[in-house]
Amino acid sequence: MSPSSFEPSRVDLVVAFRVRPSCADLAPPTYASRGAAGADLRAAVDMPLVIAPGERALVLTGLTLEIPPGFEGQLRARSGLALKKGLALANGVGTIDADYRGEVGVIVVNLGNEPVTIERGERIAQLVIARVERATFLAADEVAPSDRGSGGFGSTGSA
């Protein structure tokens, strides 16, 4: 089954999107397999973008999303780009808030030793839509103790 022919068996959530007119040639967010959690986003660069080792770059996607209230879009790195080219997301996981209506951009960093070239239409990141819980923060004189206590980085073991 090719990604373009993938039809989900049910729709859990509808996310409207708009494509920048100059990006009509690019594929929309697309799940590459039936079990994929993330939809691939493509680079909307006008010409090849070369990212030197250690350099960061903003790669636009040509997409504006309308994420429903109570959800967020999570931008995640593509494992193939990380392994083959050393590209990672500079901010780990990017967040697209439900009320953001600007063009989606992906901040990538070249962690490799060689320059990396991003081509138009290349799959640059994955988009995962996730439910968001809002919290009420309550100031307290004390917080309840736990077995872990204040143990931080590496405190739960080495394996």
**CATH domain class name of one domain:** Mainly Beta
CATH superfamily of one domain: Deoxyuridine triphosphatase (dUTPase)
* Overall morphology: globular
Low-confidence stretches: none
How much helical structure, as a percent, in the residues?
A: under 10%
What does this protein look like?
With 159 residues, this protein is mainly β. The protein has a domain of 96 residues: Distorted Sandwich (Deoxyuridine 5'-Triphosphate Nucleotidohydrolase, Chain A), CATH 2.70.40. Helix content is 4%, strand content 35%. It is built from one helix and eleven strands, in the order E-E-E-E-E-E-H-E-E-E-E-E. A hairpin with a 7-residue loop joins strand 2 and strand 3. The radius of gyration is 19 Å and the shape is globular. The chain starts with 15 loop residues before the first strand and ends in a 28-residue tail after the last strand.
Question: In terms of topology, how is this protein built?
Answer:
Layout (H helix, E strand, L loop, with lengths): L15 E4 L10 E2 L7 E4 L6 E3 L4 E11 L4 E6 L2 H7 L1 E3 L4 E3 L6 E8 L5 E3 L4 E9 L28
Relevant terms:
globular; mainly beta; five-stranded antiparallel beta sheet; four-stranded antiparallel beta sheet; Deoxyuridine 5'-Triphosphate Nucleotidohydrolase, Chain A; 4% helix; 159 residues
